[in-house]
Amino acid sequence: MKKKRIITIIIICVLLLGILLAIFVIKRKRSAETVPEYVFLYADNQTEDYPTTQGGRYFADLVYERTDGRIKILVKYGGEMGSEGEAIEQVRYGGIAFARVSLSQLAEKIPDMNVLLLPYIYDDSAHMWRVLEGDIGDEFLKKTDAYDLVGLSWYDAGARNFYSSEAPITCLEDFEGKSIRAQESAIMSDMVSALGATPVEVVYSEVYSALELGIVDGAENNWPSYEAMKHYKVAPYYTIDEHVRVPEMQICSKAVWDSLSEEYKEIISECAKESAVYERNLWKEREESSKKIAMENGTRIIELTAEEKRRFREAMKDLYEKYCGNQMDLVEKIMKY
After folding, report:
1. Who's near 54: CB < 8 A, 6+ residues apart?
2. Which residues contact 48 (CB under 8 A, 6 or more apart)?
3. Residue 42 phi, psi dihedral angles, 5° rounding
């Protein structure tokens, strides 16, 4: 009887030891699975709720999921990693692995990019996306190689339009005698001049007061920026001319890219493209929301005729030659794409 009890106790102890060992192995395995092989930084200069930031987070989540936690990407927003120009430099040297940047900033480093930023080069959003998602867009993603970067995907940033305070802009002649706030960019100032107005460079944060005080008669920007900065209060006439569409790009450090396996590169490429679709949908929602808010607050929308849009584009001929004279064949190809 005593012997049986001892055997029973031994069996129970062995079973308990087995269970404890199994729990230890499972915990060890799970611990190993959640320790990333790589932890990378991703930079965005927009706010946490902005479509590009949300697109970056979606990208990070997809990569983490599809690598079973082996690659973790930490998305830093609000310019925490510096300005877009500074972020590009840090990505170039591997201090930051990924970033979302405006193509206008990349064009400062890679001038060939300017062709995609030319005023009125696209008929509409669908036209731009045909270009970016086709062979031309793929070639421009590859142009980042020359600057030790890897272009991953295209993000949307909408279209920029003119808005004015005292009277609407309905035709080319309405620019005469007007002073228009222009971005701190040579090509944007030249665009305003080509249309017949006087460009005035004003810092973005001071545009509201410049419009309110009559320092400028108008400005230009996309719907979300127009609404977020409440410019509709001082410039209620919003003319849909879509003069510039500045796409944005997700980039990766070439130094980081070259250190990754082919499997990881493929996963990252796929996730970047999927996040681009996600971001584009978020942008559409944000654009519609901003437009609705502005209209509810008195904004009057002016739609240009097809003939006026043609005239606006015709006014850009000299500008095209100045900035992309050696790429005019490509300019023609894009316009007909």
Report:
1. 278, 279, 282
2. 77, 78
3. -130, 125
Give the number of other Cβ atoms within 10 Å of residue 61's Cβ: 14
Half-sphere exposure in the Cβ direction for 259 (13 Å, CA): 11
**Predicted TM-score (pTM) above 0.85:** no
Alpha helix stretches (DSSP H) within 67-166 = 84-92, 103-109, 125-132, 135-142
Q: Does 9 fall in a domain?
A: no
Co-location of 136 and 67 in the same domain: yes
Dihedral pair phi/psi, residue 156, rounded to 5°: -95, 145
Distance from C-alpha of 73 to C-alpha of 76, rounded to nearest angstrom: 10
With vertex at residue 193, the alpha carbon angle to CA 190 and CA 197, rounded to the nearest 5 degrees, is 145
Domain that holds residue 93: 34-157+246-287
Tens of pLDDT, residue by residue over 15-57, are 455 555 555 544 454 444 568 999 999 999 888 988 999 999 9
DSSP string, 146-174: GGTEEEEEEE---EEEEEESSS---SGGG
In terms of domains, do 132 and 68 share one? yes
